[in-house]
Amino acid sequence: MPKGMGKLKQLHILSNFVVGKHEENGIQDLGGLLNLQGSFEIQKLENVNDVNQARSARIIDKKHIDELLLEWSSGDDMVSDTQTERGILHALQPHTGLKVLRIYGYKGNIFPDWIGHSFYKNMTRVYLLNCKNCCMLPSLGQLPSLKSLRIEGFGQINCIGDEFYKNEDNHSLHIAPFPSLEILEFHDMACWEGWHLPDSQAFPQLKRLGISDCQMLKGDMLNHVLMRIISSSLDVSKVRKLKMQGDNDGWGKDMSLNGNSLSIRGFESVVEYALKAMIMHHLTSGCSSAIYLQGNYLPKSLQKLTIRHCRKMELLQQQHEYDLVELQIEYSCDSLTSLSLDAFPNLKNLDVSWCKNLESVSKSEPPHTVLQRLSVSFCNKLEALPHDMSTLFPNLQSLDIQGCPNICRLPGRGLKPNLNSLTVGGCEKQLSSLWLMSNLSALTHLTINGSDCDSVKSFPDWGSLPRLPSLTTLHISKFHNLETLECNQLLHLTSLQCLHIQQCYKLKNMAVEKLPSSLFQLQIVDCPLLGGLCKNKHQ
């Protein structure tokens, strides 16, 4: 720093002070700057030689500082006298009105007692980074207003125990530890193996727990800690959406509670506990380990269940009835061969995809009057849909059947005329049965997926597409060998307004002038031989 900084006694704003090695630019220059306010950083504290130099900075007398950073430069972390290092940090104690404290690179092995003392009633954030010699964490549990705590790069920490939570007098805890903490993060703690919670209800307000690069931390202990944290959270009864997934991507473990949404990644064994303990409106799961969802584990209030990438999950005991309104299963439940809708009398939306062993979706009497959307796609072993769908699902509005090669014929006249959205394809034989849809007088949206229809070079054939008087939107996609779109075979779609053609890479022939006169929008995407995108036929 420039010489003479200590003479600027009326200075209010100084973002940072770099401690020099000599007397004329040492830390003692800060002694007279008592009017500093706002955020203040002191860097290169390794140049402070003794406690008296640190005390001469009079940090505790700077009453208007809200945020303070105390930083030792990275480099050689070995010091000859850790007691002196502790004394220096003790002498740098700030005033009790401080709101944010950051300590980076501290080279002592124990923190002084002022850090975490309950008389810091306004402190809301604490960040402790790269204090590589510290063998224990400071006692921070009694800071009454602390909301965010980040601990990173503590390479000597082996276990977090009672010292993390206790009050300054080492007496029994008189309040729940970390009473206001919402965000707790641990990163890069190579030797950390154990984490113990006190008997009292710690972390009652915690909304986010993040853990990464802590490879030695034992999984069973960590899951136990998470269960304790979840059960003690004051907000857990408000949870309406729960998302769980494994740590296959290596990003670490994370628990985040945001309003009514709880997301858990990497804490795999808490799934069953969470299902038992919480009152949920939505549940989203994505976990790599074996999970068994028995009937009595699902709360009565559960309305939405989404299961993704849970190959080992045993779905449900289908002799029970559930109050689910929405059920989505994707890349999951390899043991599932049959799904009976009798177990879901209130189900409105069913979406099943990529269930490789599913053979049937069934429904016995009486009719399922509330089902509105049914989607079964890319289930290679699916043999059939329920018979007489018009009777079983009288209020079905949307049907998606694609990528199921064993379903060669579409339900056709087995569907109620009030169906308004239909998605088919992924199987060449299905295309030849499109004419069976002629009774769908209310159909407004039709999507035809041409994947695995490699022999189709011209579409639609004469008479293959029925007269659909209400159809307004037609999507044609993924016909990878399609060369010609027979536009004259679309003329009988007299209400057609939007035609979307996508990923037909060989499509080169298309007589636009033969499209229905009602067409308002023509969208062409990823069809390079047609030369781009047309937004409006009439332009």
TrEMBL record:
Residue intervals of the R13L1/DRL21-like LRR repeat region domain: 27-153
One Pfam family per UniProt: LRR_R13L1-DRL21
Membrane-crossing residue ranges in chain numbering: none
Cross-referenced InterPro entries: LRR_dom_sf, LRR_R13L1-DRL21
Protein name per Swiss-Prot or TrEMBL: R13L1/DRL21-like LRR repeat region domain-containing protein
